Amino acid sequence: MHEARNRFKTLGRKWPDNAIRELGMYVTCENSDDIAYIVREAGEDCLVIGTDYGHTDTSSDVDAIKVFRERPDVSADVKRKILSDNARALYSL
Q: pLDDT (tens digit, 9 = 90+) per residue, 55-82?
């Protein structure tokens, strides 16, 4: 975000108040993230699950979707958006 904001400034463009929504960005979230905070800051329509599954990376989580579905701190509507609706919108499916 800081790099993008700096590029806007260099070009003399105003950085949008809610850049993530206004510029059509998507944010990946992992099970260790504070989803409530991310939803407050970015909105629930721009989040998708990020697992890094398939990479040799310690953040890979083969059970990420199962674990995410079991989170008590995320509403069913937000879970549906993160796991399905938002990805469909992102990839125009």
A: 556 556 678 888 899 999 999 999 999 9
Question: Of 45, 48, 57, which Cα lies nearest the Cα of 21?
Answer: 45
Terminal-residue alpha carbon distance, the chain = 27
pLDDT, tens digit (0-9, with 9 covering 90-100), for 27-50: 888 888 899 888 887 889 999 987
Tokens standing for residue 26: 């998507």
**Residue 34 domain-assigned (yes or no):** yes
SS3 of residue 55 by DSSP: coil
Position 66 in a domain: yes
**What Å distances lie between residue 25 and 18, 20, 44, 61, 90, CA to CA?**
10, 5, 12, 24, 9
Cut 0.90: pTM above it:
no
